[in-house]
From TrEMBL, chain A:
Protein name per Swiss-Prot or TrEMBL: Multiple sugar transport system permease protein
Annotated compartments: Cell membrane
Family annotation (Pfam families): BPD_transp_1 (PF00528)
Transmembrane helix listed as a keyword: yes
Keywords, comma-separated and alphabetical: Cell membrane, Membrane, Sugar transport, Transmembrane, Transmembrane helix, Transport
SUPFAM superfamilies, sorted: MetI-like
Species this chain originates from: Kaistia hirudinis
Family the entry assigns: Belongs to the binding-protein-dependent transport system permease family.
Secretion signal, residue range per the UniProt entry: none
GO biological process: transmembrane transport
Chain segments annotated as coiled-coil in the UniProt record: none
Bilayer topology term: Multi-pass membrane protein
UniProtKB/TrEMBL annotation, chain B:
PROSITE patterns in the record: TAT
Pfam families linked to this entry: SBP_bac_1
The UniProt record lists the keyword Transport: yes
Full protein name: Multiple sugar transport system substrate-binding protein
Record keyword Cytoplasm present: no
Membership in a protein family: Belongs to the bacterial solute-binding protein 1 family.
Amino acid sequence: MTLASVPAAPRKRVRRHMPDYVPWLLISPSVILLLALIAFPLLFALKNSFYFWNLQMGPTPLGFVGFDNYKMALQGGFFLGALWNTILLTVVGTAVEFTLGLMIALLLARQLKGMNVARALLIMPTTIAPIVVGFLFRYMYDPGGGLIPWLLTSVGIPIPAQGLLGSSTTALWAVLFADVWQWTPFFAIVLYAGLLSIPDDILEAARLDRTPPLALLWHIKLPLIKKTALIVVMLRFMQLFNTFDLIVVLTKGGPGSSTRTLGYTLYQAGMVDFNIGLSSAMTWMMVIIVNAIIGLFVFFAFRDWD
Amino acid sequence: MSSFSNFRPTRRGLMKGGTALAGAAALGGLPGRASAQSKTLRVLLAGDPFYYAIEGLKDQFEQESGIKIELEAISLEALQARLTSSFVSNEPDADVISVDQMWLGQYLESKWILPLDPFIKKDKDTDIEDYVPEILYSMNTWRGQVGTLPVASYAQMVFYRKDLMDAKGIKIPEDGSWTWEEYTDIIKQVNGADFDSKKIVGTVVAGQQPAPIVHMYTQLQASKGARWFKDFPAAPKWDFEPTIDSPENLGALKAFVELYKLAPPESIGYNWFDAGMRFAKGDIGMFYWWTAYSYLCKKDGYMSGKDSVVANVMGIVPLPKQPGKDQVVSLGGHSLGIAGNTQKADESWQFIKWATSAKTQKAMGLFNKFGYQFSDFARKSLYADADLLKIYPYLPGQLVALQAGNGKIVRPPAPVYTTLEGIYGLNLNNTLSGAMSPEDCLKQTSSFFTNILKGNFLIPYNQPSFDDTLDATKALIKSLA
């Protein structure tokens, strides 16, 4: 028996029309979940910010107080002082870490001997918990035998009698130095990855044109890693704006209120004083400030984003 | 007879077996797990020296009671934050908890802990009359109820280098018959001296804000007769009007600033332990601090087990007085309470009774894993115990200090104490750094206090008051005995 082979009829793909709402329907669970996770705590805090709710006085809110918590935050003096410290720490910290990180990244990209080891070592500070970094630097700043005061005095730089963390003129910079130590490698690694992504032929062409190194950096490398750099600057800016752990371990906001940041002030109001109303108001003020700054940054930095 | 070689597992067979096993495990496991849970207590403590002794002895409790203990220790600040989150969200965290004396009112009134009166009354062997009444008054009672029992109690005393004072021909009174002025003069005499191949610094302060500086300063403040509020807590009608901006307090603050000038400048950032350990290093002449440093300063680090350079040359004497003022000693420490949301109140009480009993407290004092590192007894009987006196010869003086104690005057447990302490600590720290004058510090602190107290409806005070006196506590003890 033979079987005649019959060519199969070509399958006709039926293109069914998908209603417009289906994609929305499909992504709606994730969107709803995401919104709930972001919106619920914020809305809960917004509601609490208009109530007198101090856990030291009672477990539940004691009454509606309108904008009193916002007024208290602004009139108490702590919030504005902390805002100034935070902005100083954030702007200077981000700038220094970016600059140093870029320099290290450029060095790494030169493929010098020992760079593999350097890369492995570089990642280490970033992997240490900030609280541990705090303890580490507390010992290193100890005026009675710490490494940093010893180094500074050895090279003729005087340190205050109260120590670097004990003087209101140096404490914030000492905190900043610890942060720079920890997070500069993060910039270095990310920017190094950006530099590696620059096509070799562009760099080769520049070299053939005998482009000076600074011009190469300014006109070719930096524009090509701009997107990476902007994103990493934005992330670190937001992280630094919430600086808390280092302050708790190193200075507890002191001496006086010279190192009090918004993050620490918020912690003090919410988790030490248990003034839920006041800390909620502060949270919202922080949300508005950070979003305004980031909004402006995004507007100007990403204008020509394709 | 089947043998292994005949065993041919099929997918269906395996699934059947697996399901049966899982079912059996679930059925058999449930009651087992429930039973294990009911025999396990979660104990959340502050990580102070008493914790290490309890940790070392908990096996005894487990053997005696058959209850397993899951012990955890964290910092006091973290503890407060964690417990508050647990109670506000009604998510049970621990069954037995450390409760600071400043939180007692908040915890009892919010029903976050259970009053212990019924348990004490039921168990006569609690031996409540053995406690130093001043301790129970200062640390454990609120509005006529016992909320916690003390597991470690501290007073404040003066610590000095005996060999230094002997070399300088300075006699330190053993009976407390000296004044703060004399105390400062002695510090001035030894400040800058070369001794034992060290440059001696007169004293040391705990200048870190907020709690350490407030703990140290308020002792001087209370001793010099200054008070926080007009009428609280020993008053038939509470009045929280601040009295902090007073001539007595100004004198005290100026004296404290003078002491800081005779201390290492970096001590402006010292916490409790930093100050104590600085003395243990041997370059400090004399300072006053919590009695826990009687044994902590004998070691060169926290639970290091190694003797410090001052271990055998340390003198401990009562605090100086202010002429014309009654001496008031600060009392502090740690107490245990039963979490309001626990399902194991009886087991929790068993643990508290065990940990605070004279027998266990003595065993904690004799616990020698890190050197002897516990002498913070709240029970009178232990201050006459021959075994303990051999190890801690300063105990009689410590008992006198405890009996002169009034924690409710030195750091009054007002409902918003933590907030007030935050402001006070900040301004005191600013005063030490020179950013603020003592006059401005007290004026500004008083003004902040008024605003905070008014904002929290404590001025005027319209809720029921409670005349909280030591006599009332003594009567309560008697009623529970």
